[in-house]
Design goal:
16 helices, 4 strands, lysosome
Length: 540
């Protein structure tokens, strides 16, 4: 028992160090992208806090899998200290962890982030007092709060089971509702709210993550254009535009006013010339930057990372396709949420995890790597595409030039995507996410080889599955949250097909596109953000 406590204490210390590393990463990431001119303390703290919660929540899945696997030996027996009470305490600890993090996510998505966002929107539009800004922001935030309340009530008071008696009175039905609510300890209410947000996260993952999984590796492999050649092309464009402007202005040398069409063309050419001169300043800075020379020296490493990322993306996509195909062929259909118990079609990831389980902790490293890859490709997708509302681009995500509202949107989208990550991992390896590396003992009768009468009873370890006794295999808390409502599972199933389709389309588009500009997205004619004249150091 003392050894177990020591190991768990070491685990908690490592978890604490991981939290510090996550906070440090979030601070660097937010400070890297936030605008230097519009930096606000409250929005910065909110963005760092939301991003940290997203990363910590993503780390809870491998922790959950590790803890349910930790109580059993590889031969299928429980460890000496792992009695029923200890196992229950571990389950409760993980469950309370989910309660805490998911409650913080609800608070962030429905209250804190909307309030900070609307506060700065009002602050940008008028110069009224701070109290007026706070009142207006609270008024708009109440709408989000009402949506959250409705979701919690629906999840709490719509039980999955119904009273068996057909002649139940209204009071008995109401009493049954409250008994269901009390017996689940609020799990259904929280699960319904989180599942609703996960559904939105699925749409964000299909939009941003699927594209980022294809764009990020190919951008690393192809690299960027040479700043020297880009600057020469830009200089030629400047000379050409200046000649056009001189030709138009020559028409009014005798004092005659320019026609409307020429005035409009002149205005467009002057705007184009200003943009080209801004590009000239940025390219000149980049060409002389030591960071550009360092990135050039790191090209081979970038190509290696790009090849590694594209292999991970292909492994992820192929496994997801086979898993979805398995559900389409062997599940009970849409009314069951396409849930299957066990695996009929083996996918590469499902084959790899049992092999890695034999060498601790390779399986947890792989799961953590996939989760972090999923998050970083989501960041890359949002950064490349910007934040859109249907066909309207709201904000751009740019180094050193991102507005506070855009950072808040970015962190909220990442929060929602992280919620969907757990289901994506479950789709890839359902049995592993349910039971981890647990095994249980199965009775096996053997006939003695020496010809003596009778059978010899032995116990053989078997990997935990849906047929395992409940007291021998512990289900992860993640699985309970994922499959509380069948209709969400059905929506996630169709979302996986959409994810695969968008990834393939993004892969084709990324292959057909040429190299990116070394200042891609930094200087645009249709720039809706407030522009900073200082070039950013970090390119490449």
């Amino acid at each position: 028992m003392a050894a177990a406590s020591s190991e768990l204490l070491t685990g908690w210390c490592l978890f604490g160090l991981s939290l510090l590393a996550i906070l440090a990463f979030c601070w660097v990431y937010v400070r890297k992208y936030q605008s230097r001119r519009e930096s606000e303390v409250i929005s910065t703290i909110t963005a760092i806090f939301a991003l940290a919660i997203a990363l910590i929540t993503s780390a809870l899945l491998p922790v959950d899998i590790f803890l349910v696997s930790y109580v059993k030996n590889q031969n299928g027996t429980f460890k000496e200290w792992a009695d029923t009470n200890v196992t229950r305490q571990i389950e409760d600890t993980v469950l309370y962890g989910y309660y805490t993090l998911y409650s913080i996510i609800l608070f962030s998505v429905f209250l804190w982030i909307p309030f900070v966002y609307f506060y700065y929107e009002e602050k940008d539009e008028d110069d009224a007092s701070t109290c007026s800004h706070v009142q207006t922001a609270l008024k708009y935030t109440l709408g989000f709060l009402m949506v959250c309340t409705v979701l919690l009530l629906i999840g709490a008071f719509v039980p999955l089971d119904v009273p068996q008696k057909g002649n139940s009175t209204e009071w008995e039905k109401v009493k049954f509702l409250f008994e269901e609510l009390g017996s689940s300890h609020g799990l259904a209410a929280l699960s319904f709210s989180i599942s609703s947000l996960t559904l939105i996260g699925m749409l964000a993952a299909v939009t941003y993550t699927a594209y980022g999984m294809s764009a990020l590796p190919l951008n690393l492999i192809k690299g960027t254009r040479s700043p020297t050649y880009e600057r020469l092309e830009n200089t030629e464009d400047i000379e050409e535009v200046e000649q056009h402007i001189l030709r138009i202005k020559s028409k009014c040398k005798d004092g005659r006013p320019l026609p409307t069409r020429d005035r409009r063309n002149l205005q467009q050419l002057e705007e184009r010339l200003r943009t080209l001169r801004r590009r000239e300043r940025h390219l000149e800075f980049i060409e002389k930057s030591c960071w550009t020379k360092f990135c050039g020296a790191m090209r081979p490493l970038k190509i290696i990372w790009g090849v590694f990322f594209i292999l991970v993306a292909l492994l992820f996509t192929i496994s997801l396709f086979l898993s979805n195909l398995d559900k389409a062929l062997h599940s009970a259909g849409i009314n069951s949420g396409f849930i299957i118990l066990g695996t009929n079609l083996t996918n590469p990831l499902n084959m790899l995890l049992p092999v890695l389980q034999t060498v601790f902790p390779l399986d947890y490293i792989l799961i953590t790597t996939i989760i972090m890859y999923f998050i970083f490709t989501s960041m890359a997708g949002i950064r490349n595409m910007g934040i859109w509302f249907f066909w309207i681009r709201l904000y751009k995500i740019r180094r050193g030039k991102t507005r506070p509202q855009a950072l808040l949107f970015l962190c909220m989208i990442l929060l929602l995507i992280v919620l969907h990550t757990s289901y994506m991992i479950y789709s890839l390896a359902p049995q592993y996410v349910m039971y981890g590396s647990q095994k249980y003992l199965v009775q096996h009768n053997m006939t003695p080889v020496d010809g003596q009468p009778g059978n010899v009873t032995t116990y053989v370890p078997k990997v935990c599955d849906a047929d395992a006794p409940e007291d021998q295999c512990t289900i992860t808390r993640t699985y309970l949250f994922l499959h509380k409502f069948w209709f969400f599972s059905a929506a996630y199933y169709f979302g996986n097909w959409a994810f695969i389709a968008v990834f393939l389309i993004g892969l084709i588009v990324s292959c057909c596109k040429g190299k990116k500009s070394v200042i891609e997205g930094e200087v645009d004619e249709d720039d809706s953000d407030i522009s900073d004249d200082e070039p950013c150091v970090y390119y490449g």
